[in-house]
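Study this one:
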Amino acid sequence: MQTAYFHRAYWCYDNNLGIAKVHYEPLGIFAILFEGGIPQINVNFLDKNEFSYYWQKYRKAGVNLLLGVQIDRDVELTRVIEQDNIFKFPEINLEVKLENNVRSFRTVGAEEWIEFQDDVFVEYQPCKSLIHVS
């Protein structure tokens, strides 16, 4: 069984929303904004302003996103199913397609693919340190 690290980098457990990073060797490291457990948009986690934007947006709405710095709470291994150029992460309701070096995502079973915006490819690293991934 193949697995990836799922790191809730900025997360509200009560609302099951926030920004999570996925560490998976064929896809590198990428971040997705989840709302109610549904993937919404990819996030450039190297841009502190982008993280700050979402943190402030949810704070104004009365939702506090916690910084995910506890390995035992904020990181888990999630199953990955590879089929051709599609990577399914069933436990986190996410599918990612890699085609001609372009990444797209969708909710598991959805029809429409959403291309990553301002996609910055970050080489894979295991999720051992939760603070500085470069």
The radius of gyration is 14 Å.
